[in-house]
Design a protein that fits this description.
236 residues; alpha+beta; Protein Transport Mog1p, Chain A; 7 helices
């Protein structure tokens, strides 16, 4: 009996039951009880990012989901989703992604993001070919919150990427990591975007999109937790 109780508790803590939420580009399975963040909240969040960094290229997220209904919205733990139409990457491109130093990409931008991101760092990218996901870890020291840890999964498509970024407080992250991983690996790209390998992919890169620019955009996306704290403080 004790073993069954332990198993049930583990399943409950990791959100075993899933609710599919379908969007035009992707279907995401979120744990039972999780809710979608209203579009107007994401729009207000993007506007605040632009206000904080008017000269910088700021990401705009398409969808977001969190464990409990707001307000407050964008409350930990949560997942952000971004559809990025960069152009189709080749398999060669995906295999060489780990060579990009994302922390260096942030430092290159200097005053654009440097002051805001000074207490943040990114792990090395890892391409999991079997799961068709590029994995990235992140850590941020968020004012009034403390350390926040993130896991990002980037899924290649025929038109670019679908990015999924999951965040939780560092102390809670081990509990939510399996949930984030299931959300990312379980995401189903729409048929018209589904990535299909081609024999020409093995011939090398074709420079169809700027990987240097995309690398920086991905770095900002993976470290977005620090901007969420800024946005929430201004809403209180």
């Amino acid at each position: 009996m004790r073993q069954w109780l332990v198993l049930l508790a583990a399943l409950a803590s990791t959100g075993a039951l899933a609710t599919p939420i379908s969007k035009p580009e992707v279907t995401v399975d979120v744990p039972d009880g999780w809710v979608e963040v209203p579009p107007e909240v994401l729009q207000a969040f993007h506007a605040e990012l632009k206000r904080q960094a008017p000269l910088a290229q700021v990401p705009k997220y398409d969808y977001a989901f969190q464990e409990a209904a707001g307000p407050p919205w964008l409350n930990y733990p949560y997942v952000l989703v971004k559809v990025t139409p960069t152009g189709r990457p080749t398999e060669h491109d995906l295999e060489t992604l780990p060579s990009i130093d994302l922390n260096a990409k942030v430092r290159e931008r200097g005053d654009d993001w440097g002051k805001i991101m000074k207490d943040s760092s990114l792990g090395q990218m890892r391409y999991d070919k079997s799961a068709n996901v590029v994995w990235i870890s992140s850590k941020s020291n968020v004012a009034t919150i403390g350390p926040v840890t993130g896991i990002s999964g980037v899924i290649p498509t025929e038109q670019g990427f679908v990015e999924l970024h999951g965040y939780a407080k560092e102390s809670d992250f081990p509990q939510y990591l399996p949930t984030f991983q299931r959300i990312i690996t379980g995401a189903r790209v729409a048929p018209h975007l589904l990535y299909r390998p081609r024999w020409t992919d093995k011939l090398g890169p074709f420079a169809r999109f700027d990987f240097k620019q995309w690398g920086f955009a991905l770095a900002v996306g993976a470290l977005i937790a620090i901007f969420v704290s800024i946005y929430r403080r201004r809403q209180n």
